[in-house]
Amino acid sequence: MIKLSRRSFLNGLAGTTAAAALMSVPNVPALGAVSKVTSIIAKPGTTGLFGADGNMTDVWAYGGEVPGPVLRVKQGETLKVDLQNELPQKTTIHWHGLRIKNEMDGVPFLTQKPVGIGQRFTYDFNIQDAGTYWYHPHVNTSEQVGRGLHGALIVEEQDPVQVDREVVWVLDDWRIQKDGAIAPFGGLHDAAHAGRYGNVVTINGKTGTPFKVRSGERIRLRLINAANARIFGLEFEGHEPWRIAIDGHPVTPAKTGTGPIVIAPGGRIDLVIDMTAKAGETFKIRDRYHNRFAYTLALIAYSDQKPIRSKPLEAPKKMAANPVPFPQLGSAERHEMIFQGGAMGGLRGATYKGKEMGLRELARMGMVWAVNGEVIPPIEEDDIGKPMVSLKKGSSHILRWRNDTAFAHPIHMHGHSFHLISRNGTKLFAPLIMDTVLIAPKEYVDVAFVADNPGDWALHCHILEHAKSGMMGFVRVG
Ligand SMILES: [Cu+2]
User: Fold this and answer.
1) pTM above threshold 0.85
2) 15 alpha carbon to ligand 1 midpoint, in Å?
3) What would the pLDDT profile of 149-186 be if each residue is shown by its tens digit?
4) How far is 144 from 124, CA to CA, in rounded Å?
5) Structural domain containing residue 345
6) Contacts of 120 (CB under 8 A, 6+ apart)
7) Judgement on whether residues 357 and 438 belong to the same structural domain of the protein
8) Which one, of 291, 362, 373, 308, lies nearest residue 340 by Cα?
9) Do 372 and 296 have their domain in common?
10) Same domain flag for 151 and 197
11) Which of these, 27, 67, 73, 333, could form a disulfide with 170 (CB 3.0-4.6 Å)?
12) CA of 462 to the centre of ligand 1 (A)
């Protein structure tokens, strides 16, 4: 038997189409090669957000635990998840940020029937992009996510950044009553303002857990904002983190500098942090997105162990890009979506289901936001409504998202990752690949993408109370 070295194997194939295909996409593994199979039960549970001694909180959670299990797959693998619904209401799972086939996207009526009480549904899809993602329901989303249904989904790179260890933080924000119970959901005030801000912020479902580190170690910290509405702006006292990925997609590693690291609901940021301080020291991690309400999220606590290395490491290397196509900007079709309404937004009225209505009348129906002068009706079983735009499969598009309201909105698009190419007309030096972009009041952004994934794809604000009250529509690709 003759053993072929890799080189002679490739040489042997030279000139064939197989070799050409193999050579042209060196970073993309064979699709569908391996499956990871798991099952998840969505069910009520009880958790101690404040540690063992504090009040207990009844939650809805994957496996009864907050957050749900960390799902880990390798880039190119197929993930199969058997969802069993033991909640007191219908549900689905949406795989936030993953570009998967439409029927697995988990949006009720748009991509699948909701999974009934006591029913099962098997999600089964191939994963082409590496990075930090997450999963959560898309039915009664404000309440289901707000009660604890969410978990991290980590897609490992073929060639990850080299670190000593990796840490996943699911950030969440809860509105908790004195008795430890979750406060009731709903109400127009949250919907018309900044969304459901809470009074208890957790990391992986707990408050007050120190971030234990050892001097000299290099840590990859994967941050996921699973809060309904809270925008985080993190500051790591005494440390200089590198930002290495945004919404799962690698960026050229750069120190985050003096400003806070901003993560809006739905968003993810991967950091590499060198633990450069001395054994036994402690530092604060603060959230100062809302400067007047800044607070300490956690403490970095150095162990007494001697440093893991004596010399600082070199800058982390940029990881390989995911295979997201870049659109043809010159010939791209342009579309504008102007987000309007909410408190202090100056919107007097809008069209709802073909009828001109005043804002007060709309508010009585729970609708307070509009896009281009129209309130988007909720997507319902018997009427999914009209797409915001219809895009020909394979064509290039630039969407201008203009925030004409008094609040910031993280706008999220399903089924595609887009390239953020400019803010307020100023081109980004290097476009960022994202699936959720935070748009400040009165700001506009241009995002560009190739409409290559056929189907109806939700497009909405990830402040879940905004999505519920008019900031959710869909785009049609086909
Ligand atoms: Cu919003």
Assistant:
1) yes
2) 53
3) 999 999 999 999 999 999 999 999 999 999 999 999 99
4) 22
5) 333-477
6) 82, 83, 84, 85
7) yes
8) 373
9) no
10) no
11) 67
12) 6
